[in-house]
Design goal:
69% helix, single chain, 182 residues, mainly alpha
């Protein structure tokens, strides 16, 4: 997503863009483009994953309507979901994570002037999200484990998405007011 935000700056096109009213609204278009790009990437990755998952010889169709709370799983879940419902919930959480990371990166990309800074901050943000998502309680307990607070994962993702939206809206307001001299 970085080329969406950094190409104009490195080609010195921002001075031309900010002279017009339409040019000052380009930030919103770039946000929409980054959200579409991240959604497309997640859809393609999940499509490939499910293609491999569903076309193998030993499928799990028998277990789609089975509860995920059973003696075979580690611990219990807060909600009595079937395996199919659990898959859909995890897919929704992956899309929410994608949107929140995309919004954070869009905000950070607008603030960074150099590729090295951009790479370092993006790598740090990726590592933090990876560490939070793959924490030991999530790996062993899974989503909605009874050993974690009931809405920990959903609350975390919604909070990160709201913070990302607020940061992007503040940046969008600043972009509309921005002048050529800034």
């Amino acid at each position: 997503m970085s080329p969406i935000f950094t190409k104009d700056r490195h080609r010195n096109l921002e001075q031309i863009q900010y002279t017009t009213k339409r040019g000052r609204k380009l930030y919103k278009d770039k946000i929409i483009a980054s959200l579409i790009a991240s959604g497309t990437i997640v859809t393609v990755e999940l499509g490939i994953l499910f293609f491999i998952y569903l076309t193998r010889e030993n499928t799990v169709e028998v277990f789609y309507n089975s509860s995920i709370n059973s003696w075979l799983t580690f611990g219990f879940r807060w909600f009595d979901l079937t395996f199919k419902e659990y898959i859909f919930v995890v897919i929704a959480l992956v899309y929410i994570l994608s949107i929140s990371v995309s919004l954070f990166i869009a905000f950070i990309l607008r603030k960074c002037n150099r590729y090295i800074t951009l790479t370092g901050i993006s790598l740090l943000l990726t590592l933090v999200f990876f560490k939070l998502v793959t924490a030991e309680t999530l790996i062993w307990g899974g989503v909605f484990s009874i050993y974690t607070p009931k809405f920990l994962i959903i609350g975390f993702l919604v909070t990160m998405t709201i913070i990302g939206i607020i940061l992007v809206l503040i940046q969008n307001r600043n972009e509309k007011k921005r002048s050529i001299l800034n």
